[in-house]
Amino acid sequence: MTFPFDALRRWPDIEAPELVAADAADRLILDESASARAGLGAEEFVVIGDAYGALTLGAAAAGVTGIRVHQDPLTGEQALAANAAALGGAEAFRSLPLEPALVRGARVVLLRLPRSLDALDDIAGLIAAHAAPDVTVFAGGRLKHMTVAMNGVLGRRFARLDVTHARQKSRVLVAREPHDGVDPQPRRSEHDGLVVCAYGGAFAGSAIDIGTRLLLEHLPAAIDGDGMLVDLACGTGVIATRLALQHPSRRVHASDQSAAAVASARATVAANGVADRVDVVRDDLLSSLPAASADFVALNPPFHSGAAVTDLIAPRMFADAARVLPPGGELWVVWNSPLRYRPALERLVGPTRQIARNAKFTVTASVRR
């Protein structure tokens, strides 16, 4: 059966003509793994990093069942479920966290290579620790996003690494003979008394990116009201932690759609002693919060959807932040100055003023009208 890759959608992630749901790397990974997948038993096949379901549903269409899947973005999970409902295959897979149960006993793993080497190391270590001794990993991606350093990361966990011929600007690394497996552990560092913890794939790792640093420097000392404070797109939880430390009588809600970010933020708030007042959730925007439920929202919006750069993400975040703020509540945003988000903030939230600006970033405060 030929799987209809062109029928896949990215929804509920952003959709645009230049943003695809499947690419040549997905097709190459499936083709290179076809013989290895033949005759697999139940629960012997795992897919990691499937963007919107091409690998999972392509394998399901070829007859594989009992597929275990991990996708870091929540929108990826949601898109996979929606595509399965539309195209078939929903009964063939289940989604799991990046934990031992995901890969235990697996004999074939398909992996879309993450851009973060730390994320790749976490995945490779987990597979080597818990998959079957004869596991074969087919790790592929677009050539423009692959580096020789990826070979080195896989080589630390697998004794044999083969490289396929390139096709349509894509390539697959085939790893076998696992050794020295280890479960993922967060990297830790300290910045101005704040402990930052990061699992592989979390934005900026255990460092603090310059945009977040600028926002940290200008967070308000006083916030009106006694309601919830929110860190939207929380990453490693740096802003949420600082809000909890500066406002010990307030609860903080931290939200991110990335599983790695959520795990990192939970580790960060625990390391700084504020886990009892910070709720960290994996969520698409702030869908778990009711309207007018927060007094203050802080946001450092992403501008990547996978590998693509786009300005379509931030306005959705501005609109949902406005939904959870009552009139008079404030949204504080740090953004790359060339993106010129102020008109969107004025339109979607309310009157907006500049708080700070440096060579690259602007911090603004918008009052909910």
TrEMBL record:
One Pfam family in the UniProt entry: RLMG_N
Record flagged with keyword Iron: no
Superkingdom, taxonomy of origin: Bacteria
Keywords: Cytoplasm, Methyltransferase, rRNA processing, Transferase
EC number in record: 2.1.1.172, 2.1.1.174
Domain Methyltransferase small: 195-364
Annotated ranges, domain RlmG N-terminal: 7-176
Coiled coil: none
GO molecular function list: 16S rRNA (guanine(1207)-N(2))-methyltransferase activity; 23S rRNA (guanine(1835)-N(2))-methyltransferase activity
InterPro entries named in the record: DNA_methylase_N6_adenine_CS, RlmG_N, RsmC/RlmG, SAM-dependent_MTases_sf, Small_mtfrase_dom
SUPFAM superfamilies in the record: S-adenosyl-L-methionine-dependent methyltransferases
Name this protein carries in UniProt: Class I SAM-dependent methyltransferase
